[in-house]
Amino acid sequence: MFEINLVPDVKEQLLKKQRLRNLIIFISIIVAAGSAALVALLGSIVTGQNIAMSNQDREIKCRSVGPTSPNECTNYGTAVMRFENLNDYLTIQDQMNKISALNDAKLLLSRVFGILDVILPTGDDVVQISELGINLPNATLNFDAQGDSASGIDYRALEVFKNIIRLSYYDYGRYMRYDNESGSFVEIPTTCMDEMVESGIAYGIYHKGAPGCEAPVLSVEQQENMNNGSLTPADEETDNATDGETSQITDIKIRRAYRTLADKEEYQLTDNVDGIRYYFESQCIAYDEEGRINEGETRETCRLSAEAPSIRDSSNGRDSEGNLVLRFSATITLNREVFRFMNKHMRIIGPTRQNVTDSYTQIRDMFTERAAECSPDDEQCRQQVVPNGN
Question: Which residue has the higher pLDDT, 5 or 15?
Answer without folding.
Answer: 15
